[in-house]
Amino acid sequence: MIELKHNKNNNKWFSGKVLKTIQDFNLIEAGETIAVGLSGGIDSITLLLILEYISRFSHIKFHIIAVHVQVYDKHDTKVMEELCRDLDVEFFNIFANNHDLPVPEKGICYTCSKLKKGALIEDLKARGINKLAFGHHADDLLETLLMKENTTKKLSKG
Length: 158
Description:
It is a single chain. The protein is built from five helices and four strands. Strands 3-2-1-4 form a four-stranded parallel sheet, with helices on both faces. Strand 1, helix 2 and strand 2 form a beta-alpha-beta unit.
């Protein structure tokens, strides 16, 4: 089980900067629900941990839910579900099945990403949630660019 303890000195390096950003840009208001897109990767898990920590120990009290969008039924989400249970965060699994769609010109990753985000936004609107946080770091931009380039080359050789 994960235990988050407030430690003014150890946790100040991230919580203070994130909290200041939240306040400076009015990103989260007290009492609101924030959905965190949880992929299972380090970016989204770190974001979930940081927001849960801030919601628990800062003066801004808000509710967090974690949402995972699943394209294929065989993806195992047990670890993410256990993490959320340990953090006392609600976890939802949304299914966005796109097996029958043809491969578009822009590539599989681009289309899958658009389908997943669309399914996620529709589900959150139905739940009355209007704020969604994604974990994404600077290296993701380059990785996405290289992945898209590699996918495009493979598709054109076809």
